[in-house]
Amino acid sequence: MIEPTLTLERRLLKEHAIVIACDEVGRGALAGPVAVGAAVIDPARSRKRVPQGLRDSKLVPEARRPEVAARAAAFVQHSAVGWASSVEVDEIGIIRALGLAAVRAIADLRAHGVVPEEALVILDGNHDYITPAGESGLTVRPIIKADRDCASAAAASVIAKVARDTLMTGLHDDHPAYGWARNKGYASLDHRDAISAHGMSVHHRHSWAIAAAPTLF
Q1: Which of 65, 132, 181, 197 has its CA 20 to 30 A from that of 140?
Q2: 164 contacts 190 by C-beta, under 8 angstroms
């Protein structure tokens, strides 16, 4: 299994004061918000050892994610999670919603003293959805598989994943029929069956062709 490193971050920090890594979770879910995690690495932290077990959140067993996320949050200089609701996904589309969530995460960092304009922003994936969302003055670099290869992006990934899973588990109590404590809003068979039986809740993405969405598990 490939382990993330700080090799790229160290190289980028020769030209930028900090690195901010962003990664999204919940993009393909049928219900619930989309979330974007943001994690800040400065030169001092780029020389530290990567926390034990840190990986892209999809590669960390669910039972271990909270402890890994806690280590990641303690490791980075700052972290934040930005959100866009299912209603916003319906209103503006998933890509613009991702940008909105990222802008909110970066605003949270700014409120804690981070100066994003001094950063190189690593964005997991191949598309910059942050700049069109209105965050002018940032230098954004999309990197495919950043959450696999870059420790900062892996930290952002697992921090956001745990935050969103916690939220969906909490929503389960009000809507137990959909099984969100287990499927976290994704397209499981039991989730599809519940939608067929009960219709969609206020937390579902009503604009989505849910019947055509691929079943993930």
Answers
A1: 65
A2: no
